[in-house]
Amino acid sequence: MADTTPNATPSVAYQNWAARQGRARRKVIVGRLLLLLGFLALWEYAPRNGMVNPMLTSYPSAVWDGFWDLIAQGKLGLHIGVTLMEVMISFAIAMILGTAIAICLWLSPMLERVLDPFLVVLNALPKIALVPIFYIWLGPTGSIYAVAIAVALFITILMLYTGFNQSDPNKIKLAKTLGAGQVQILTKVILPGNVHTFMATLKANVGLSLVGVIVGEFQASKAGLGYLIVYGSQIFRMDMVMAAIVILSLISVGIYLIVQKAEAILTR
Amino acid sequence: MTGDTTGRHLAVPPKIEFRNVDLHYFSTKGETHAVSDMNFTVNKGEFISIVGQSGCGKSTLLSLLCGLMQSTSGQVLIDGKPVKGPSPQVGFMLQHDSLFEWRTILENALLGPEIRGMDMPAARARAERILTNYGLGQFLHHRPTQLSGGMRQRAALGRTMCMEPDILLLDEPFSALDFQTRMSISEEIGEIIRREGKTAILVTHDIPEAIAMADRVIVLSPRPGRLKNIHDITFPSLGEVRPGCMAVRDAEEFKDYFHTIWTEMESDG
Ligand SMILES: Nc1ncnc2c1ncn2[C@@H]1O[C@H](COP(=O)(O)OP(=O)(O)O)[C@@H](O)[C@H]1O
Ligand SMILES: [Mg+2]
Questions:
Q1: pTM, whole model, 2 decimals?
Q2: B89 partner at 20 to 30 Å CA-CA among A80, A114, A135, B11?
Q3: d(Cα B20, Cα B79) in Å, to the nearest integer?
Q4: What's the confidence (pLDDT) of residue B3?
């Protein structure tokens, strides 16, 4: 058996190596902070000194004020809550529906062969183009969910189905020799062997659902971060727009980190 | 073929019988004649090796015997009854150990009982006992990735044995191992199979391995695989009781068997 346990007492050479690693890690962190600070400083400096039009770009201190302004109005929580709920619901529906469809396709190769060209076209179609149609059919709220689900659904089906199909044929053969039927191959080999595919799909969908929801909110809505962005730009409050965008990126990073945590636990 | 070699007239049918078996694969690329007019029998407790060039239908024979597919014509019989599908009676060890890396060693061994809906507490006790016998007692709750190649192969044998099969099919199970591990693990697994009185068929293209482990060696022709010859392997110079796989490699008869089989396979070009 390969022994990978480290030595109990590290040598001097190892300690030097570890110290170098530590220094390199600190340099990376400092570099990142400098980049961020440099960007914020430039963003603050250039509009204030007439190098760019502050009406168009706003600047960090104004965004900060805009952020507190939104909180003072007591509406920020509502906007964040509305967007988050729309993202969560459409994300969940796209995942569940997509997984169910991928499983059906795997269980029935005939169905897969019939549906294949349609799925390819639907996946390639820019779903954003459907926003006006969804709006006419489903109204303001329904269209937001419809876009967000449509954006994430087809890629979910295709990613999962591809993963299922790439499962180790030797493991499938082995399960068959032990007497497994289609359903048992699914539950014992295909699904547990595709946890990483599932996680990759989840990660892709976090971003996609968010895109779908924001675009849906652009078309028509009375609340949500997408609404805030459109409204802010209409009344030329760039500070409000920028604040909403910053919050949006924080939300997407937050959800991504949650998914990553879940992956670490599931694939332990 | 005459009735004598197929054992058709015996009161007790042979453990395994291939009767005029033909197999054709059909694919969009065309038709492949993989096995042609196969006839042989294996008695209970016998260890048979099948050798032949790559692509001559060795794996196909095992798949037929395991019931993963049906012959195009002819019959494959176990205990005189046609094989209809996989049964717990037949255990299959593949070239890749195919341990599920998301399961522990013990959970891997319990895969078969789970699939067959067996009594799980009893299966668990059996799996623990078998794996412990195979020197894996310390590793029951380890993941396959934490084990060496030889240990993984023993775990795979444990998974097969947990179903308590009386026939074992081994499809080049040692070919992914390094030379040293291969020698010791084939000796070890050969011992286990003989000790437990299982009927076994080993497929390999390693002639020395085939001779060292088997009571009889079947030589197949290149595709479509036909039965070319059957050699009885005995070592009179080593006495009444056959010694282990390692010891027989030094016997005088061993070189002769090797030479004969080698020449037979060479002549196919
Ligand atoms: N599923 C399949 N479809 C079509 N041809 C196959 C299939 N499986 C095996 N064959 C062909 O049948 C022949 C025998 O294969 P196999 O039994 O795997 O040979 P071996 O195990 O002796 O190397 C080979 O020529 C192989 O290409
Ligand atoms: Mg083969």
A1: 0.85
A2: B11
A3: 17
A4: 44
Note the pLDDT tens digit of each residue in B217-253: 999 988 888 888 898 888 877 777 777 777 778 778 8
Chain A closest-CA separation from residue B127 CA (Å): 15
Quick one: which of B87, B94, B201 has its CA closest to B157?
Answer: B94
Distance from CA of B40 to the nearest CA of A (A): 22
From residue A172, how far is each of A95, A188, B67, B154, B194 by CA, in Å? 25, 9, 15, 20, 29
Contact A168 B92 (CB under 8 A): no
CB contact under 8 A, A179 and B87: yes
On whether residue B217 sits in a domain, the answer given is yes
Residues B22 and B81 in one domain: yes
> Do residues B207 and B95 make contact, with C-beta atoms less than 8 angstroms apart?
no
Partner residues linked to B227 by β-bridges: B220
Q: What's the average model confidence in pLDDT over A176-191?
A: 95
Please indicate, yes or no, whether residues B66 and B118 belong to a single structural domain of this protein.
no
Residues B117 and B159 in one domain: yes
Q: Which residues contact A43 (CB under 8 A, 6 or more apart)?
A: A57, A59, A60
Residue B11 domain flag: no
- Single-letter residue type at B41: T
Strand order in the sheet with B167-171: B90-93, B167-171, B199-203, B47-51, B216-220, B227-232
CATH topology assigned to domain A63-266: MetI-like fold (1.10.3720)
Task: Return the half-sphere exposure (C-beta side, CA atoms, 13 A cut-off) of residue B55.
Answer: 4
Interface confidence: ipTM more than 0.95: no
Write out pLDDT tens, residues A189-226: 999 999 999 999 998 888 899 999 999 999 878 889 99
Mean pLDDT, rounded, for B88-104? 92
Q: What is residue B96's predicted lDDT score, i.e. its pLDDT? A: 85
Residues of chain B whose beta carbon is less than 8 angstroms from a beta carbon of chain A are 66, 68, 85-88, 90-92, 94-96, 98, 100, 102-103, 111-112, 114-116, 146-148, 151, 163
Residues B203 and B252 in one domain: yes
User: Residue A6 gets which letter from DSSP?
Assistant: P
- My answer on whether B144 and B206 are in the same domain is no
Residue spans per domain, chain A: 12-54, 63-266
pLDDT value at position B78?
A: 93
For chain B, the domain total comes to 2
Q: Quote the domain boundaries for residue B210.
A: 16-89+166-266
**Residues B82 and B207 occupy one common structural domain:** yes
Q: Which of B25, B29, B223 to mutate to test the pocket of ligand 1 (most atoms within 8 A of CB)?
A: B25
Q: What is the pLDDT of residue B108?
A: 96
CA of B34 to the centre of ligand 1 (A): 6
Q: Could you tell me if B134 and B79 lie in one domain?
A: no
Structure tokens at A69: 């302004």
Quote the minimal CA–CA distance from B253 to chain A in Å: 36
- B141 & B108 share domain: yes
Task: Evaluate: CB of B135 within 6 angstroms of ligand 1.
Answer: no
Residues 6 or more apart whose CB falls under 8 angstroms from that of B144 comprise: B97, B99, B100, B101, B103, B105, B108, B152, B155
